[in-house]
Amino acid sequence: MKKSIGAKTFAMPTPVWVIGTYGENDEPNIMTAAWGGICCSEPPCVTVSLQKIRASYDNILNRKAFTVSIPSKAHVVEADYAGMVSGKNTDKFTGSGLTAVKSDLVDAPYVQEFPLILECQLLQTIDLGMHTQFIGKIVDVKAEDAVLGENGLPNLIKVSPISYSPPDRTYFGMGPELGQAYSVGSQFKK
């Protein structure tokens, strides 16, 4: 029997994304966000939800762009730091030792050290209450050669992304492959 624990943000796991933006004086900024995901296939889009008090909130509205830098487990410390301090009074790139790279395609920086980058143009915002959802059209994906599989696309195990467990506020790495999508369940097809 299942026990009711109330309405909570316990979708598991959530991604650990580092959102890159520029401030009003062109200073690069990053923040860690877990409220995000893919929201459309065509055009390819992601969504990330931010509180209005965050520096990244105004930065995205002003520049109409953001990046999603996906950290590997080797950078969990830096990713956590980017979510602990405010970009309003802290240079998170200097503080974390990470390197800001100016995107050639959107008006936002990304993190050089992270293996997978999504460059996004702001399409729409939706005020949800405590958070505003930013929907960004992915204009390009950049990946380190080392994280590409034989098919030339990012490989989850090689990227080694971090996930976040909201109930216990803990980071986790990815585990082994369980099976191929649209295949392992075929035994139930009639």
UniProtKB/TrEMBL annotation:
Family annotation (InterPro entries): Flavin_Rdtase-like_dom, Flavoredoxin, Split_barrel_FMN-bd
Matching entries from Pfam families are given as:
Flavin_Reduct (PF01613)
**Domain Flavin reductase like stretches:** 12-153
Co-factor(s): FMN
The protein's UniProt keywords, in alphabetical order, are: Flavoprotein
Give the matching PANTHER family.
FLAVOREDOXIN, FLAVOREDOXIN-RELATED-RELATED
Similarity comment: family membership: Belongs to the flavoredoxin family.
Q: What is this protein called?
A: Flavoredoxin
| Source organism | Sporomusa silvacetica DSM 10669
Question: Encoded by which gene?
Answer: flr_1
